[in-house]
Amino acid sequence: DSIANQIAAGEVVQRPASAVKELLENSIDAGSTNIKLIVKEAGKSLIQVIDNGAGMSENDARMSFERHATSKLRKSEDLFSIRTMGFRGEALASIAAISQVELKTKQDEEELGTLLQIDGSELKKHEAVSCKTGTSICVKNLFYNVPARRNFLKSNPVELKHIIDEFVRIALANPDIHLSFMQNDLEVYNLPPGKLSHRIVNIFGKNYKEQLATCEENTSHINIRGYIGKPEFAKKTRGEQFFFANNRFIKSSYLNHAVLNAYEGLLPENHHPFYVLFIEIDPKHIDINVHPTKTEIKFEDERTMYAIIRSAVKQALGTHNI
Ligand code: ADP
Ligand code: MG
């Protein structure tokens, strides 16, 4: 029923940025090569994601808003082994429970696509529509029927910052996808597909180009690749430190410490280095008792991870043998 739906929804969607994350991940899972994100008022009045992915059949489109209706059904234990970002089949159902959704979707072989309009889980419109292959989903007035939640949202700049954070994480993990982001008709990002180094420069600025050092380390246990910033490029502000495990963004203060440890003696006081590091690891070495929506994870053998990360960063800094 609708109350249960709204409570469940609140667990998946805490703020506009969580809806943005889920929608972008769905577009990635659909094999899109071009994804556009459009938001108004920091996502409070509109979040739209337009992709050129596989689209959905009429039946799949209807099903996609049912709770636990996923085309990607897996066990949650498999979170870090599965190749799709989604697997719970909860995001669209949750979003539709607490907003006004308009979905347009079409598969390549179909002549006409499907238009669905859903207000607070209630189907308002269902018709055939002519549209391009792919999916466009508009999420309007998030939490319009949950005033307590809506009133709890932070100011537009704060909510927009959360959206930017999610967008940047996804953009770094998918440099081969063209991603763009408009807010209130202004372009926030337009990121053409290319190499990771180009993506970093396109996101953070031209001056990052000379500041990156390649980081790579392959052991029987894990593979690490990515870029770190040169020590003299470190900043007083945090927020440009990224770890990904099997292409999912993760937070790990422990691994962050391993990186900082490698910079020891090289950083001015209270400065934080830039880094974007991708860890490929057999999922059986990742602690499985981790909540799927949490980005904090634990590795089975943390000490080894620490040592490998530290050594990889030292190597990249050219201080390995010093
Ligand atoms: P999950 O991603 O966990 O499967 P979601 O609620 O996010 O669950 O999506 C439900 C289903 O809707 C997906 O499994 C997928 O089949 C379909 N879907 C959602 N978004 C898209 C999209 N942009 N393109 C194609 N299919 C989509
Ligand atoms: Mg999903």
UniProtKB/TrEMBL annotation:
All copies of domain DNA mismatch repair protein S5, residue ranges: 200-318
GO molecular-function terms, A-Z: endonuclease activity
Top-level taxon of the source organism: Bacteria
Keywords (A to Z) from UniProt: DNA damage, DNA repair, Endonuclease, Hydrolase, Nuclease
Keyword Nuclease part of the UniProt annotation: yes
Family: Belongs to the DNA mismatch repair MutL/HexB family.
Biological role stated in the UniProt entry: This protein is involved in the repair of mismatches in DNA. It is required for dam-dependent methyl-directed DNA mismatch repair. May act as a 'molecular matchmaker', a protein that promotes the formation of a stable complex between two or more DNA-binding proteins in an ATP-dependent manner without itself being part of a final effector complex.
Protein name as it appears in the record: DNA mismatch repair protein MutL
Species this protein is from: Splendidivirga corallicola
